[in-house]
Design a protein that fits this description.
Helix content is 35%, strand content 15%. It has 456 residues and is of the alpha/beta class. Helix 12 packs parallel to helix 14. Bound molecules: pyridoxal-5'-phosphate. The site of pyridoxal-5'-phosphate has 12 residues, from helix 5.
C-alpha cells in the first residue's frame, strides 16, 4: 500500500486513499470519482457558486432550480420534488416534524434509520413500532409487509402516517402498491425511506420506485447509489394527502442558507440522464460474478445490491473485509455471515474479477450459523422521548441485564438501532453485542465495555 505523510490528518488519509486506487463496492455511488462528469471534475471551483444573478435561490426558487425540480418531478411522476442538501436524514427529520405539526402518530419499522428516532425526539413526534419479520432462509430482517401494517393498525387505530424503509440495506422491497392502496382507503399517508433505491427509475429490472406505486412522500439518498457527491438526496411528494407547502417549508427550515450548486448539478444529471444501457451492462457483469462466485449470492429485489453469503468461509465478514481492504478492495458492509456490496455501472468487469480472485483464495471452514440481529420484541419500560432526557449512569455491559437502556445501541454498519432509550436490556442483547464486537463489527453507543442505563 502506498503511503505519504503530512501535517493534515484528513488530507493525509485522503491522499493515501487516492494513491491506493482501491476498487469501490460501497457508497458514494460515483465509485471513487469514476462516475463524475469530466465537466464537473474540471470546473469544480467554478461550479461551486452562490446565488449570483441568474442562479436562482433554493429557498424561493423561481428560475433554474425551479425548472430543474419541475423536470425531475415530471420524470419521477410526482407532484413536487425538492433537493435535500444534507442527506436523506434531513428529509426524514422534516417528515417527523410534519407529523408532529399535524399532531399525528406515525408507525415506523423497528429497523428504522437513526434519523427517524432522532426526529421523533427532536420534535416530540409520537411513534409506534411495526416489527420486521425475519427472512426464513437468510435470517435478515424483511421490509415491513401489509400484514404487519394491518396488525399495527388493529393495535393502534389512531395511526395517521406510516413510514417504511424500502429497499432495506440488503436490497429487499415492500409491496408498496398494496400497502399504499390499503392505507389510502383509510386516509393514512405513506412515507417511504427509499434511501438505497434512488436508482430504481433507471431500469425496468429494478423494483418500481415507491413514488410511482402510490407512496405519498419518498426520500432518497442519491449519493448512496448514483454519481453524486455525499449528502446528495431528494424528497418527492404527492399532494393528495400531504400539505406539500408545509412539508417543503419544513425541509427548507432544516436546510442551510448556502445550498451547494455542486450537489444540485450532480443530482440533476443523475436523475435526468438515461442510464438504462449502463445498468444492463452492469447486470450482465453481475450475472457473470454470481455464476463464478465460490459463495452463494442472495436473490434480492435490487440486482445491483450484491449480498454474498460467506457462512462457509473460515473467516467472519469483518475479517474478510479487512483482508479485502489490504488487497485494495473496499466493500459496503459485512456482518458475521454476509458481505454487502453496492455496485454501480461504474464498476467494471475487472473489479469483479479482482474480487472473485480474492474470494477464491479464502479458506473454507465449518459452516457458521446465521444470526439475526433483531433479537425479539424488546420491552419498552419508558417512552423513548421521555427516557432520552432522564439521568443515566454507566455500568459494565455484562451487569446490565434487566436494566433500562439510557442510550441508543447501534451496530454499525448498517446503523440500525438494536436498543433504544427506555428499553429493557436482555441477556440476548448482551450476547449479541458481545458476539458482533468479537467479530470486529463496531457498536455505537457503548463506552468500551460500559453501557448507559437509566436510574429509576
Ligand atoms: C435506510 C436509511 N435511511 C436513511 C439514511 C440516511 O441517509 P443519508 O446518509 O443520506 O442522510 C440511511 C443512511 O445510511 C439509510 O441507510
Amino acid at each position: 500500500m502506498k503511503k505519504t505523510k503530512n501535517n493534515y490528518p484528513i488530507n493525509n488519509y485522503l491522499n493515501n486513499h487516492a494513491l491506493n486506487k482501491a476498487i469501490s463496492f460501497h457508497m458514494p455511488g460515483h465509485t471513487n470519482g469514476r462516475g463524475f462528469l469530466s465537466s464537473h471534475k474540471k470546473q469544480l471551483g467554478k461550479y461551486d457558486i452562490t446565488e449570483i444573478i441568474g442562479a436562482d435561490n433554493y429557498h424561493e426558487a423561481t428560475g433554474i432550480i425551479k425548472e430543474s425540480l419541475t423536470k425531475i418531478a415530471k420524470k419521477t411522476r410526482c407532484d413536487q420534488s425538492l433537493y435535500l442538501l444534507n442527506g436523506t436524514s434531513s428529509g426524514i427529520l422534516a417528515l417527523m416534524k410534519y407529523v408532529s405539526v399535524k399532531k399525528g402518530k406515525i408507525l415506523i419499522p423497528r429497523d428504522a434509520h437513526q434519523s427517524i428516532i432522532n426526529g421523533s425526539i427532536l420534535f416530540d413526534t409520537e411513534i409506534v413500532f411495526a416489527y420486521n419479520e425475519i427472512h426464513k432462509q437468510y435470517l435478515i430482517s424483511n421490509p415491513i409487509s401489509l400484514i404487519q401494517i394491518k396488525q399495527s393498525l388493529l393495535k393502534y387505530p389512531d395511526i395517521s402516517h406510516v413510514l417504511i424503509t424500502s429497499p432495506t440495506y440488503y436490497g429487499f422491497v415492500s409491496d408498496i402498491r398494496k400497502i399504499s392502496e390499503y392505507l389510502h382507503e383509510k386516509g393514512i399517508a405513506l412515507f417511504v425511506d427509499q434511501a438505497h433505491g434512488s436508482h430504481f427509475i433507471h431500469n425496468k429490472h429494478f423494483p418500481i420506485s415507491a413514488i410511482r406505486q402510490g407512496a405519498d412522500v419518498v426520500v432518497e439518498s442519491l449519493h448512496k447509489t448514483q454519481n453524486c457527491l455525499t449528502q446528495s438526496a431528494i424528497i418527492h411528494g404527492n399532494k393528495k394527502l400531504i400539505d406539500l407547502t408545509l412539508l417543503m417549508s419544513i425541509v427548507k427550515f432544516l436546510t442551510t442558507t448556502s445550498p451547494s450548486y455542486l450537489l444540485m448539478a450532480n443530482m440533476e444529471k443523475a436523475l435526468l440522464s438515461d442510464h438504462n444501457k449502463a445498468y444492463n451492462r452492469l447486470f450482465s457483469t453481475i450475472n457473470f460474478f454470481i455464476k463464478n462466485c465460490p459463495y452463494p449470492v442472495l436473490k434480492t429485489n435490487d440486482i445491483s445490491r450484491v449480498v454474498i453469503d460467506i457462512r462457509e468461509a473460515k473467516l467472519t465478514g469483518n475479517e474478510i473485509t479487512k483482508l479485502l481492504h489490504k488487497e485494495r478492495i473496499d466493500i459496503e458492509m459485512a456482518t458475521l455471515t454476509y458481505l454487502v456490496l453496492i455496485t454501480t455501472p461504474n464498476n467494471r468487469k475487472k473489479d469483479f474479477l479482482s474480487l472473485l480472485k480474492q474470494l477464491n483464495h479464502l479458506e473454507k471452514g465449518e459452516k457458521k450459523e446465521n444470526i439475526n440481529y433483531l433479537i425479539n420484541e424488546p420491552v419498552q419500560v419508558i417512552n423513548i422521548r421521555k427516557a432520552r432526557n432522564m439521568p443515566t449512569r454507566s455500568i459494565q455491559l455484562n451487569k446490565a441485564i434487566g436494566k433500562i437502556c439510557g442510550t441508543i445501541i447501534v451496530p454499525y454498519p448498517p446503523g440500525i438501532p438494536l436498543l433504544y432509550y427506555g428499553e429493557e436490556i436482555s441477556q440476548s442483547h448482551i450476547d449479541y453485542i458481545t458476539l458482533i464486537r468479537r467479530s470486529g463489527q463496531a457498536v455505537m453507543g457503548l463506552e468500551n465495555d460500559y453501557i448507559k442505563i437509566i436510574e429509576v
